[in-house]
Every structure is written in structure tokens, then in C-alpha cells.
Write a structure and sequence with these properties.
By secondary structure, the protein is an alpha+beta fold. 36% of the residues lie in helices and 37% in strands. Among the domains are: 92 residues, conserved putative lor/sdh protein from methanococcus maripaludis s2 fold (Beta Barrel), CATH 2.40.420.20; 86 residues.
Length: 420
């Protein structure tokens, strides 16, 4: 009986052993997962520690010293060099050029004869008008004599009619003749005035056959030759172009509408021309014209730069590339523009760690720069000012002259250029 019970009890123990096996497996799996997670955490911590300890040794920061210096904001524009004042010398009358006395670069004084149109047709008209005037004056003399006779006849008939020596009809006729003689005098005087005006106009036209310079200056353009026929029927043809003073020139620059708002009268400017590429010229903005110029849907405005030209190096029509200074700081605390584009790389940036605040203690909003302090990058917040595309003025912030500001970084083993 005892053996039977023992035999019967064995299956029960086996069943209990079989039921306990899943719990043991779960317990062992949990320990394994925990161990793996712990190992991963240790590995990440080790990587972080290694990167932190070795980053400075693996990366070289490219820096520049913060210093004081000029910050100059300027805009560039192209333009054309022109004389300040040019005068078009033309003709009011048509005809054939009989003579030419001025050429390119001729120095002229006011009143100098530059060319002459054949005056003979206009001289004939003057002579005709003189003759017509003489006829009109002679007619006036004749009609004055008629008036005197008509007056005497009328007065005599007035006396005779009282004695019945002449009829009333005769008196009326003499009165009418006297009135007509008086009216004829007025007509003759008006005719004389007309003939005098015609003679005056003809004389002026005769004078216009002399092409003279109206100003002192230099002939910069000529468009006439001897024997050429000029016609002034619809508009005055230009024969010469005279520049009054070539020792002072101007640059008519085309400034884009995005930049014209910054250009003011008195702005200093420098420019170069192709003929003297290494000779910068200096000038000053004297005009900002309001009239827009639209070329291929691009709107520009004319900013006029006046420049001395004592050596006469600048010629009319030259193309100039101008640099107009619209603002400047001569002694500004400045930082290179590269520093404003630099962001440190590494684990902190990759992990999405929050960046340093961009607000100064006084509440001013600024931008974040990075300086190298104690061998490590440290963020500083500054308020930028004037920018000239190379340096930016530092208006406010924890930045002092001599600070090493980071503009890039590169691996010490690499010879590549700095990474901004």
C-alpha cells in the first residue's frame, strides 16, 4: 500500500514541476532585459563621457579677435559720366552749310562762330523786305500830300457853299475825299509797321545763318559737315554739343528701388572706370531724382554724383561703377559676419538640447554668438547694429575687445577649410 501511494504521488510532483517552469523562464528573461538595458545605458554614458572629454581635442575652433574698427555700409551702382551742363547748338533756319569753324574738342567762347549756312537766300528776302518797306514809306508820303489837298479843298468848299458858289453836293464830296485821305494815312502807317516787322524777321533769319556758341565751353560732339543740308522744318537740328566745364563732371548712377531709400544728399561716394581701374575717384551725391526709370521691368532711380575732374581724366560717356556710402561707424565694436552664421556641432545639437536664450538682462532681444573661453565655446547674446557684409557693429552685449569669437571649426587632423 505504501508503494502504491508512492507511485501515485510521483505524477503529481512531476505536474507541479512542469507548471513551475514558465515562471522561472519569465524571471530569467526579465533579468536579461534589465541587464541589456543597463549595458546600453552604460554604453551611452560612456559615449557621452568620451565625446565630452575628447571633443575639444578632436575639434579645432577657428576664431577671430573682437576689435574696434570702421563699419561702413555702402551700395553699388553703375552709371555714366556726363558733363554737368551741356548745351545743344542748333539752327533755326534751313540751308546748306557753307563753312565750319569748330570741331571736336574745340575750346569756344560765347559768341564764337562755329559754322555758317549759305546766307544768300535769306539776304534776298532781306533785300525784298527793305524794298517793300521803302514802297510803303513812299506811299505814305504820297497819301499825306493827298490828305493835305483834300483838306484844303474841303475847307474852300465850306466857304463857297455859304455864298452859293458851290452846291451842297460838292461840299459833301470834298468832305468824303478828306475823310478817305485821313484813313489812307492810317492804313499806310500800318503797312509800314508790317513791312518793318517783315524786314526784322528776315534780318533775324539772316543772322541765324551764323551758327554761334551760346556759352563758353568745349565742343564734345559735332554732327555737321561742309556742304551738308540741314532742315529746320519740324525740329531744330543739333549741330554741336558744347560742355560748359569739363573740370567738374557728374556720374548719373542707376540705383535700384530697394536701395534708393538709403541714399541721401551729401553721401560720399567712390567709383572707378575701366580706363583707370586702379585709380578710384571720389565724389558726393548732389541729386536724388524722383523720376523712375523702368528697363525690362526693373525700376531704378538716378542718383547724381558730382566729382572734380581737374586733370581731365574723365571723359563724357565713360561707364562707372560707383560705391555710395550710406552709413558708417568709424570706431565701432565689431564682429565678423561669419560669427553670426556659426553654430557649434556635436552631441548637444544633435540631441535637441535647448539653446541659450537670446534676450539680454535688460529685456533687449539679440542674437547668439559663441566665444572661446577656457578652451570651450560659450554663448553670448549681443544686439547687432550696422552691417557692411564683412563686419557687424555690436551695439550691446557681453562682448569686449580681445574676446576670441568663434567663426568656424575643423578637425585637427583635417586640412579642410573651417565649417561655418
Amino acid at each position: 500500500m505504501t508503494e502504491t501511494q508512492t507511485l501515485e504521488s510521483k505524477p503529481s510532483a512531476a505536474g507541479r514541476s512542469t507548471a513551475a517552469t514558465p515562471r522561472a523562464l519569465l524571471r530569467r528573461s526579465g533579468w536579461a532585459v534589465s541587464a541589456i538595458l543597463a549595458l546600453l545605458a552604460l554604453a551611452l554614458a560612456g559615449v557621452a563621457l568620451y565625446w565630452t572629454m575628447n571633443h575639444d581635442s578632436a575639434v579645432r575652433y577657428v576664431t577671430q579677435k573682437v576689435a574696434r574698427g570702421p563699419v561702413v555700409r555702402a551700395i553699388t551702382a553703375s552709371g555714366t559720366i556726363n558733363p554737368v551742363i551741356t548745351v545743344q547748338v542748333g539752327t533755326y533756319v534751313s540751308g546748306v552749310i557753307q563753312a565750319r569753324y569748330c570741331d571736336y574738342n574745340t575750346e569756344v567762347k560765347k559768341g564764337r562762330l562755329c559754322a555758317k549756312i549759305d546766307p544768300r537766300p535769306y539776304q534776298i528776302i532781306v533785300d525784298q523786305d527793305k524794298a517793300n518797306l521803302a514802297v510803303a514809306r513812299a506811299q505814305l508820303v504820297k497819301d499825306k500830300a493827298n490828305l493835305a489837298y483834300a483838306k484844303v479843298s474841303y475847307e474852300r468848299n465850306q466857304r463857297l457853299v455859304q455864298t452859293k458858289a458851290v452846291s451842297q453836293d460838292t461840299l459833301d464830296n470834298s468832305k468824303n475825299a478828306y475823310d478817305q485821305a485821313q484813313a489812307q494815312i492810317g492804313l499806310d502807317e500800318a503797312t509800314i509797321a508790317l513791312r518793318e516787322a517783315e524786314l526784322g524777321a528776315a534780318t533775324i533769319n539772316l543772322g541765324y545763318t551764323d551758327i554761334i556758341s551760346p556759352v563758353d565751353g568745349t565742343v564734345v560732339s559735332r554732327s555737321v559737315e561742309m556742304g551738308q543740308t540741314v532742315a529746320a522744318s519740324f525740329q531744330t537740328p543739333t549741330l554741336f554739343l558744347v560742355a560748359t566745364d569739363l573740370t567738374t563732371m557728374q556720374v548719373d548712377t542707376n540705383v535700384s528701388e530697394s536701395d534708393i531709400g538709403a541714399v541721401k544728399l551729401g553721401n560720399k561716394a567712390t567709383f572707378t572706370v575701366e580706363s583707370f581701374a586702379r585709380h578710384p575717384f571720389s565724389g558726393e551725391v548732389t541729386q536724388v531724382r524722383q523720376s523712375p526709370q523702368t528697363i525690362q521691368n526693373v525700376v531704378t532711380y538716378d542718383a547724381v554724383i558730382s566729382v572734380p575732374n581737374e586733370e581731365l581724366l574723365l571723359k563724357p560717356g565713360m561707364t562707372a561703377t560707383a560705391r555710395i556710402v550710406v552709413d558708417r561707424r568709424d570706431d565701432a565694436l565689431r564682429a565678423p559676419d561669419q560669427a553670426f552664421r556659426y553654430t557649434p556641432g556635436g552631441l548637444a545639437a544633435l540631441s535637441g538640447a535647448p539653446s541659450a536664450p537670446s534676450v539680454l538682462p535688460d529685456g533687449s532681444t539679440g542674437v547668439r554668438l559663441w566665444v572661446l573661453r577656457d578652451g570651450s565655446p560659450r554663448p553670448v547674446v549681443v544686439v547687432p547694429g550696422l552691417d557692411d557684409d564683412s563686419y557687424t557693429e555690436i551695439v550691446k552685449g557681453d562682448l569686449q575687445p580681445g574676446d576670441e569669437i568663434i567663426v568656424g571649426e575643423e578637425a585637427k587632423s583635417s586640412r579642410s577649410s573651417p565649417r561655418p
